[in-house]
Design brief:
Elements (H helix, E strand, L loop, with lengths): L40 H4 L5 H30 L3 H47 L2 H14 L7 H10 L6 H13 L3 H21 L3 H22 L6 H18 L6 H8 L1 H6 L2 H24 L12 H8 L4
Helix pairs in contact: 2-3, 3-4, 3-9, 4-6, 5-6, 7-8, 7-12, 7-13, 8-12, 9-12, 10-13, 12-13
């Protein structure tokens, strides 16, 4: 190329290539991409469960054999036509009667425990919504619940005398609480304090941890039964276990299960706990835990919410249990 040639080199022309692509939808959302389905544990565990079938079949077989043996034994004893046969028939009738009474007692206990919860729920609803008919129904339920109790005779008479003069639902519920439920609260506090003190003393002097666990569990169940009976439930075995589950659920939901050295320090002082032995500190901790369970049990068993009465305070009751008040 000549150096004196100042002409610009010609630009190369690139041919446009038309690329065919599928049309893009108007929506800007990305297209969902199907993901492969993974087999879960539930999918892998489907099928016949031979272990469950074996246990069920064995249980049914043992029950059938026991029934046949009992039937044949009773028939053989009755066929003797002597005092042994008649005694066996009488004992069998007594066993059946006891089983029926136990079942009836458990059903009645569950019904009474459910009645307390229903009354409390309706009372809370009537107080929030100022529902006078619902408040009247709650008052009538309370009177039927506590009818015949000599310790609440004065409260029942006063409620029956003044309930028709009150026009406001909240005032009627406060009157019912003042006359029927509030007189029971000091006894409930005394029950909780006595159980907590027993737990503290036994835990402090007990030589074995297993004894501590058994005594603490038994004393807490005894406390729950006494509190439920005080407020009108009179629970049986099944209803007592249900009440224990309700109390634990209440404690978990309210976030009040956390107990530790900070609580004990704030209650009885920072210096005293440092001088306590490990057993005394453990006893005090178990007593505080029993106190917390008792307060939750009062909340569950009490048929009315706290309208004008004051709810028991945990720190005050722990201080009372510790002997500081």
């Amino acid at each position: 190329m000549n150096k004196n040639d100042t002409r610009k080199p010609a630009a190369f022309k690139v041919e446009e290539i038309e690329v065919f692509a599928p049309p893009v939808p108007a929506s800007s959302e990305p297209m969902p991409v199907p993901s492969p389905r993974l087999r879960t544990t539930a999918d892998l565990g489907r099928g016949l469960r031979w272990g469950a079938i074996l246990i069920s079949a064995l249980g049914a077989l043992v029950s059938l054999l026991a029934s046949i043996w009992l039937y044949d034994t009773v028939l053989a004893l009755i066929a003797r036509d002597d005092w042994i046969g008649w005694a066996a028939a009488a004992l069998l009738a007594l066993v059946v009667l006891a089983l029926v009474m136990i079942v009836l007692r458990e059903v009645a206990g569950l019904a009474r425990l459910g009645r307390l919860g229903k009354i409390r729920h309706e009372a809370d609803q009537a107080s929030r919504q100022n529902d006078k008919p619902l408040a009247i129904d709650v008052a009538h339920r309370l009177k039927r619940l506590y009818a015949g109790r000599s310790d609440l005779a004065w409260g029942l008479d006063r409620l029956a005398e003044h309930e028709h003069d009150i026009m406001d639902a909240s005032e009627l519920l406060r009157l019912a609480e003042r006359t029927l439920v509030a007189p029971l609260d000091p006894y409930a506090r005394a029950i909780v304090a006595a159980s907590a003190k027993r737990v503290s003393v036994v835990t402090a002097v007990s030589p074995a941890a297993l004894i501590d666990m058994l005594f603490v569990g038994g004393e807490n169940l005894r406390m729950l039964r006494r509190l439920a009976t005080l407020y009108g439930a009179r629970p049986g075995t099944l209803s007592l276990l249900k009440l224990a589950r309700m109390v634990v659920t209440h404690i978990v939901l309210t976030g009040g299960i956390a107990l530790g050295d900070d609580v004990i320090h704030q209650v009885i002082g920072h210096g005293l706990t440092a001088k306590l032995s490990a057993r005394l500190g453990e006893g005090l901790f178990n007593g505080a835990l029993t106190t917390r369970i008792g307060i939750a049990a009062i909340d569950v068993c009490r048929p009315l919410p706290y309208l004008e009465s004051q709810r028991p305070r945990f720190r005050e009751m722990v201080a009372e249990v510790a002997g500081m008040r």
